[in-house]
Structure prediction request, 116 residues.
Amino acid sequence: MRLDVDASSGVPPFEQVREGIRAQVESGKLEPGFRLPPVRVLADSLGLATNTVARAYKELEALGVVETRGRAGTFVAGRGVTSAVRSAASSYVACVRTLGLSDDDALDAVRRALGQ
Prediction:
């Protein structure tokens, strides 16, 4: 894994780290199951505070790009499943918008479908 952080950039360092990792996952350079360096190790190698890298990892986890397995570390998530779910959700939202459904009605339809 290769990351560069430009201190003179107007983009905050945590965003540079987050987007650098996300781009490598999306391009396939980092495959599902790849173990990311521990927060402290990556922070030291980039000359950043540990909280900066921790924030990037936390946001990546919220996006479903990585998953933290406790003391085992942080790993690239199963990209194929995550991408398929995102795509299906986007298609569903486009469809319900076309039909003129409210967000509540759309969510109720999903809850009913999941209950089957």
Remarks:
- The chain has a mean pLDDT of 90.
- The two ends are 43 Å apart (CA to CA).
- The first strand starts at residue 66 and ends at 68.
